[in-house]
Write a structure and sequence with these properties.
Layout (H helix, E strand, L loop, with lengths): L1 E2 L4 E2 L2 E3 L12 E4 L2 E13 L5 E7 L1 H32 L1
Antiparallel strand pairs: 1-2, 3-5, 4-5, 5-6
Length: about 90
């Protein structure tokens, strides 16, 4: 598993969170998005001993996120180019 603290792919074990969670609290969802559900897991890296949370999510949603980020990047580039296009029109 990837550890965000030591930036390595290493063995990370599952562990109980520092706060009590009822069994239903492991399953998370997003208000207003009934199709988004994920399981929250607490992990500890066996290399650096840092703890962090992971989420198990339907892979289709990851692909949608990548498409949205790519689209937003293209949109940002278009917006950045607008002042140059407007000033050329004023000339």
């Amino acid at each position: 598993m990837y550890c965000p603290f030591c930036d390595r792919v290493t063995v990370c074990s599952a562990h109980a969170p520092n706060f009590p969670m009822a069994p239903g609290e492991y399953l998370q969802s997003a208000a207003g998005h009934p199709d988004l559900h994920w399981f929250r897991r607490s992990r500890i890296c066996t290399t650096c001993n840092e703890s962090f949370h992971t989420a198990e999510i339907y892979e289709k949603h990851i692909h949608e996120l990548i498409q949205l980020r790519d689209g937003l990047g293209d949109l940002a580039k278009s917006v950045e180019a607008l002042p140059a296009q407007v000033s050329r029109r004023d000339d």
